[in-house]
Design goal:
mainly alpha, three-stranded mixed β-sheet, Four Helix Bundle (Hemerythrin (Met), subunit A), Nonspecific Lipid-transfer Protein, Chain A, 10 helices
């Protein structure tokens, strides 16, 4: 896929996530997400903020975080998260169509960010959030090829990941098979979807 095709997938994910979040009860916004230390509202704020980050904003936030990238990402989201939920939904909806991206990232990074974080919100709330195959594969390809911060190929060495609902596979070794979105979350370092996977490699993961 070219960059514009990826951006179109990003727009779909942003729009459908906003449509889903608008129906959340008030108490769900402070529920822990799959991101350690992040509430649902923090993840939503991060996704909206990532679509509006300029070079100047990144520089200012990095200074505040004393140069720590992970700290900057977390703190900048949390500072903007404690607003009424409707403002977070509106900010996420307003990001549809934006081609803004933080320095050092591309359209594939924006796709993996919104797809993974959409699941980070939905799964702990017991919500289903279906992901189109093209979006899940595009995000997984990017996670698989990157090193930092996922290091997926290193962490999952000795395992062969195979999607059973679309054409994607990666790695060598004991079989881990299942839905591509579950494989994506595994590659991104989440364990919440391991129970949806099967094969010898999946059994090893469940036992570890």
């Amino acid at each position: 896929m070219d960059s514009e095709e990826l951006w179109q997938l990003v727009d779909v994910e942003r729009r459908t996530l906003a449509d889903q979040l608008v129906h959340l009860p008030a108490e769900s916004w402070d529920h822990p997400s799959l991101c350690a230390g992040w509430r649902v509202r923090d993840v939503a704020a991060h996704l909206a903020l990532a679509a509006a980050f300029s070079f100047g904003t990144v520089f200012t936030e990095l200074v505040r975080a004393r140069g720590g990238m992970n700290r900057m990402i977390r703190d900048s989201a949390i500072r903007r998260a404690d607003v009424p939920p409707e403002r977070l939904v509106a900010a996420l909806r307003a990001s549809v169509g934006s081609r803004q991206r933080p320095v050092g990232t591309n359209s594939a990074d924006r796709l993996l960010d919104v797809v993974i974080h959409g699941q980070d919100i939905a799964l702990p709330l017991g919500l289903e959030r279906p992901v189109p195959a093209a979006s899940a594969v595009g995000a997984l390809e990017r996670v698989w090829e990157r090193g930092y911060p996922f290091h997926a190929r290193r962490r999952l060495a000795g395992l062969r990941l195979v999607a059973d609902d679309t054409d994607w596979s990666g790695g060598e070794g004991a079989l881990v098979e299942g839905p591509v979105t579950a494989l994506l979350m595994l590659a991104a370092g989440r364990t919440a979807t391991v129970a949806r996977l099967h094969g010898e490699g999946a059994e090893r993961l469940l036992a570890s």
